[in-house]
């Protein structure tokens, strides 16, 4: 396991500071980053670079043995000076679960220590500390990992899992690919031609899938990279940078709509047809929204193989969050993918919440209204889409990356999938990382993928 240390982005304030006790909770402001094509949260400034507030475990890699006690170190500086005295609120417990310990702690001369306790079994212990600064509540997290590579999944694979997906995929390919490439001249350049790609498959009738396809202009044969999108409704803009380096790149749009309409079209989808799409049809494996998504992703490899400039053998997958899940799922089902990358993958170990621990995004079993009337049916349907079951079937090398402070795709959930993979794998951990992609993660994962595809 490789550990990366990322410098924190500090919240900022321009007003004078008053440190008081916690009276309420206000989440730090985050903005959805759509231009990167992944569903990540990026901290935005909330004031001046004068507030230096952090919570850090006492071990540099944030990793502990079960039974070993963790201590959390708190730092609170204002205008570069330690705060003489301040009363802070804290909560400690297994991630996403009811805190097992909470109270108040006093900062003296800028620092404080919290005894976090331990865990008796593999998992993640989260410390949540909050301070009120002139009417605004600031929150910092630290999540101690207890033997994470020993976490076992709670998800149960259906007996007919392989038969179901084999028959479903075979049927989905019973219609011609019907590919159509529409040039997007405004995104093309001297090195790369960019197209809207359209292709077909069967899922209760003929379905259309779309993506942004970038192809090097220069004559030759090239490896391909398929990028699977994070959750959301806006299509990706294409990966012209890697195409210019000598790769065919395909950025998928999973919602069966063209990728070249104006923004108002997708905004309408956001608030209407695609609202809460991740929960649609979850009581039946054949009506679940992601059935169509998975089949479209699998068929994308046929599209790649149909391209005259494809080298005929080298395909890589890359995705984050929902895209990380789809990267794993597609690689498990489509054996022509040679290498894959998954960052903070979603949809892992859904049933964690039914076993007193965190489950994967979109947190079905943390929301009783989604399953309380038909829990058995929902559990059965989702079992065909849990990334854990696909991870067990991976046969090619993979590269993973994530942060322990991720509140969107809980580390307990994605380690359940990661630990189920038996093929060669490696992970780059940013211990303080939240649900976003940091530059070292992007660089390391793409460099690994590109080097492997070029040297295969």
TrEMBL record:
This is Acetyl xylan esterase. GO terms for molecular function: carboxylic ester hydrolase activity. Residues 151-451 form the Acetyl xylan esterase domain. GO terms for biological process: polysaccharide metabolic process. PANTHER family: CEPHALOSPORIN-C DEACETYLASE (PTHR40111). The active site is at residues 321, 406, 435. It holds the Pfam family AXE1.
